[in-house]
Amino acid sequence: MRQRLTVLLVLLLTIVVSGNAFDRPQKSDVIKIVHRVNQTWQQRHPTHGDFFWNRAAYYIGNMHAYEVTGAQAYLDYATAWAERNSWRGREGSDDPTEWKWSYGESYNYVLFGDNQVCFQVYADLYNLDPDKDPQKIARALEVMGYEISTDREDYIWWVDGLFMVMPVLSKLYTITGNQQYLEKMYTYWKWYTDRMWDTEEDLYYRDASYVYPDHATLSGKKDFWARGCGWVFAAFAKILQDVPETDSHRAEYISYYRKMAASLKRCQQEAGYWERSLIDPEQAPGYETSGTAFFAYGYAWGIKNGILAEDEYGETLAKAWDYLTTIALQADGTVGYIQPIGSKAIPGQYLYPSSYYDFGVGAFLMAASEMSKLAVGDYDTNRVELENLIDNCESNYGDDFARQSVGTNLFQHSQESYDAFLAVLEQARKTAGLSTATASELVAVRNSLEQALQVLLATCNEPDTQASYQIKLIDTELYMSLTYAEGETNGRVRLSDTPFSFSFVEANQESHQYYLSDGIGYVGIDGKNNWTTASAAEKRTALSFHPAMQGEQLYYTIQTRNGHIGVDSKRDQAECYVDKNGQEERHWWVIKRVPSTGIRPVFRTSDSRWYDLQGRPARKSGNRGVVVRDGKKML
Predict the structure, then answer these.
(1) Dist CA 478 CA 460 (whole Å)
(2) pLDDT of residue 197
(3) Which residues contact 40 (CB under 8 A, 6 or more apart)?
(4) Which residues contact 424 (CB under 8 A, 6 or more apart)?
(5) Quick one: which of 116, 228, 453, 482 has the most CB atoms within 10 Å?
(6) Sign of CA dihedral 38, 88, 163, 370
(7) Do 560 and 542 meet the contact criterion of CB atoms below 8 Å apart?
(8) Is the pLDDT of residue 135 over 60?
(9) DSSP code string of 381-435
(10) 253 compared with 588, residue with greater pLDDT
């Protein structure tokens, strides 16, 4: 009888445990998603930006993707970025005592964590280098070595900084064996935690300006930013890979990691995502991907390494993964619903499937890569990579690419190279469909398809990318002109009776920085259109940089005291419209870049009349940027 009861008890426990465990995905499916997302990003971004945090966050995800796939292209992509930035972060003065640690993106903000997160990638690349080239981590050792030599404890004063800085310190510890990196990491974390950890909710505030009750949501609740908490939840997972079992602070890190896991589980929405304000969903409701991806990574790593119990958190992870792969992941390989750069849940801010940003892609790749380690089954690497490449090519360069490319002004391309590409793509489809295809056949056709795609992209270009758009105030009149890199001026148009009094010029072709100036300051936009700065002793004009929505297209706008100038995320949509906000009319000017072959850049004045850049009347047809002038279609 006792034996029978024991058997029944074991069966009951098995049912309970299996009921709470999640249904793990197939490894081949997860790896295919990793490839699809990362290849889509890299194909759309063949060149590399600077070292700043949002770009570095993507490259961290890219390194996770390399870890689980071994794809040499991913390693090469990261190395090219590091070399583009000379394996450095912010430059700063030769005298480190002049370095600054508060928020800043200019010369001397060397000790600001957003300028240091790139060192994580450099450290990973150094560890993968069989020759251990010291140049790859020289600047990291210089900067962080100075930082930990000072008595300051508040280098990490905002929640993002826990992700930006702590893994740098733990990685440098594993490389050097210098215990001071771990001790200072704990000092910085403890200083922040003592001030920003809410003991009732077991969550972190973003920074001192968001601590309750001095700050609250619109409904009076505590405001915990999802991506902010995602940064630290992921940071715990990353540093615990480096902190040794013998470290006196490891148990304390794990304790907070587990407290956050329990609290976040309670905040998760039924659809698998987390609202931007964790305990007040109505503050900024709707899908959001970056915070959800960081949480998924944290849960996956914790479960895989036995720190978080699968029977407790497996379902939470499964729901998050379902959201990431069925809602956030788009058919073309992009990742949507990513909250733009910011610091809080913003009421009234809408996210869309097209809300697609580098740091959010990095977070997705971290989650997917870690998920692949929990996944079950084997996979044929060659077949998965070929199938993924085919999917990517069909989504982005499929049969209607020629029509779409002209219609959306994305590319001009060689028809001969495109026809050759389509032929190789068709052959790849046939080979992938053969269950009897050998590994060498799969590799050969994949290489052929990659080569054909490279040839196609090499013949594509974005016309006028070297052009400088200018809006100038000359003798109280506003002018717009377009100048090519060779110095040719494509025309100038006088815009009379406008309320604007400023110039808008491209001042740096290499980094695509634009400056808005009225004599007392400037606003700069880098190649990603995602940062702003002003240098003015007296800011009389309302220089600001913020996102605004028009339909499902995200526009970035520069606001002056009398209106706005806007550029979209690629600086290639153009129109001017007047938004009547109550009694106030706000003028929105958006620059347009279009192919120089037959289609002219156009603008519309406040009287709703369209002109090309030579001052000739023009009309706009449809929503694809097709310009009609003098009744003749210019295609």
Answers:
(1) 34
(2) 98
(3) 332, 333, 334, 392, 395, 396
(4) 445, 448, 449, 452
(5) 228
(6) positive
(7) yes
(8) yes
(9) HHHHHHHHHHHHHHHHHSTTHHHHHHHTT--B--HHHHHHHHHHHHHHHHHHT-T
(10) 253
Query: What is each CA distance from 552 to 210, 218, 414, 548, in whole angstroms?
Result: 30, 26, 31, 10
**Rg of the chain on CA atoms, in Å:** 26
pLDDT at 231: 98
DSSP letter (8 states) at residue 624 = T
Among 117, 131, 141, residue whose Cα is nearest residue 63: 117
Angle at which helix 27-44 crosses helix 358-374, to 10 degrees, equals 160
Question: Which pLDDT does position 632 carry in this prediction?
Answer: 30
188's CB contacts (< 8 A; 6+ apart) are 153, 154, 155, 156, 165, 166
Give residues with Cβ within 8 angstroms of 27, minimum separation 6: 372, 375, 376, 377, 378, 379
CA 165 to the chain's CA centroid? 18
d(CA 287, CA 323): 9
3-state secondary structure of 210: helix
Q: What is the pLDDT of residue 428?
A: 87
Q: Is 7 exposed, middle or buried (0-12, 13-18, 19+ CB in 10 A)?
A: exposed
Pair 374, 300: CB distance under 8 Å: yes
d(CA 497, CA 157): 47
What does DSSP say about strands 584-590 and 563-568: parallel, antiparallel, or unpaired?
A: parallel
Residues 289, 630: Cα–Cα separation, whole Å: 46
Which helix (H) or strand (E) covers residue 493, if one does? strand 489-495
Q: Which ranges of 240-380 would DSSP assign to H, the alpha helix? A: 250-267, 290-304, 310-323, 358-374
pLDDT one-digit tens code per residue, 507-523: 333 333 333 333 222 33
Rounded to 10 deg, the angle between the 135-149 and 179-196 helix axes is 60
Q: What is the mean pLDDT of the chain?
A: 74
Do 453 and 397 touch, CB atoms closer than 8 A?
A: yes
Both tokens of residue 57? Answer: 């966050």
Residue 110 pLDDT more than 70? yes
pLDDT of residue 401: 52
Phi, psi of 471 (to 5 degrees): -120, 115
- Please count the other Cβ atoms lying within 10 Å of the Cβ belonging to residue 95: 8
CA 258 vs. chain centroid, Å, equals 27
Look up residue 344 and give its DSSP letter.
Answer: S
- Does residue 109 contact residue 100 with C-beta atoms inside 8 Å? yes
- Give dist(CA 395, CA 397) in Å, integer: 6
d(CA 530, CA 377): 41
Can you tell me the distance from the alpha carbon of 95 to that of 161, in angstroms, rounded to the nearest whole number? 24
Write out the H or E segment, with its range, that includes residue 505: strand 503-508
CA atoms of 106 and 115, how far apart (whole Å): 10
pLDDT at 442: 84
What is the residue whose two structure tokens read 């930082």? 147
Q: What is the pLDDT of residue 396?
A: 67
